[in-house]
Malate dehydrogenase
Amino acid sequence: MKVTVVGAGAVGASCAEYIAMKNFCSEVVLVDIKEGFAEGKAMDLMQTASLNGFDTKITGTTGDYSKTAGSHVAVITSGIPRKPGMTREELIGINAGIVKEVTENLVKHSPDVIIIVVSNPMDTMAYLVHKTSGLPKHRIIGMGGALDSARFKYRLAEALESPISDVDGMVIAAHSDTGMLPLLSKATRNGVPVTEFLSEEKQQYVIEETKVGGATLTKLLGTSAWYAPGAAVSVMVQAIACDQKKMIPCSLMLDGEYGESDICLGVPAIIGANGVERIVDITLTEEEKAKFAEAAKAVREVNGDLKF
Ligand SMILES: NC(=O)c1ccc[n+]([C@@H]2O[C@H](COP(=O)([O-])OP(=O)(O)OC[C@H]3O[C@@H](n4cnc5c(N)ncnc54)[C@H](O)[C@@H]3O)[C@@H](O)[C@H]2O)c1
Ligand SMILES: O=C(O)C[C@H](O)C(=O)O
């Protein structure tokens, strides 16, 4: 299994590191536009191989996409991250051009590739990849829900004062400060609804902290997060590489599912060797349905700013 990661910055390098450490891929190719940067990151990571005990070969290239030929999976992390006080949507002006160009280069050299889109605003960037790549829809997957769900579980465990391994939960809808939908109604502690343990006030705290999870870290770090995003991508790549048929919320092109069409939004899906094996239709409460529709409306407005 050959994986390309475009953008050797904070998220791209973290993603390459987690993929290598889990030892399920033969090769990871890092690509960046900054001269020598991907080569340097690849060399540094390869010098951890004997220390961390992995055999994955990591190489780097400055924009030579012929080195990515025959990739099974490609992860797009190229583009600028937000600074404190910004929204993800404000990145569209610079990132749309980068994502479009990168997509064209990837597909040219790996026509059978499955693309995982990370660059923000992610739901809109995933939509852009659909509109410009010509790839079938099961081979384009936006990463947001896997990360947001991990943050939801972190906040749930904090509120429950429980180990994170006791907690399960999922976030769907948009990967944005306002459009995220943490499904509190379905979150559990060892199979018991978390609503049985948490006061109304604590439930609201968990929801609000989850939704602004990325903004909170951006304020603390001065740039956006990378460890959990890298780990989330590695889980998705592993689900494809090992045909795990794992249920992961991902931003996918909808065609009537959840009442929406011609938009990429976070929904639960089975991820395996073919990329998206199927979208899972779960029952939402009336309030959740309304919030999903509201998130779709906001993402559609941002999509309207795209020029193809
Ligand atoms: N979807 C998510 O959950 C999620 C999570 C974290 C970050 N992000 C997004 O991922 C993106 C990257 O974040 P980061 O922290 O790694 O930023 P970063 O600045 O550390 O890295 C981005 C890299 O992209 C490279 N790049 C720019 N244009 C390129 C091009 N045309 N071809 C190849 N490489 C190019 C840059 O040189 C840089 O090294 C941002 O847009 C950020 O908002 C998304
Ligand atoms: O918050 C950001 O801008 C980056 C990313 O989308 C995240 O959620 O960490």
User: Anything to note?
Assistant: The first strand starts at residue 2 and ends at 6. Residues 6-12, 31-34, 37, 77-82, 91, 95, 98, 101-102, 118-120, 122, 143-144, 147, 175, 223-226, 229 surround nicotinamide-adenine-dinucleotide (ligand 1) (CB under 6 Å). Residues 1-141 form a domain with the Rossmann fold fold (CATH 3.40.50.720).
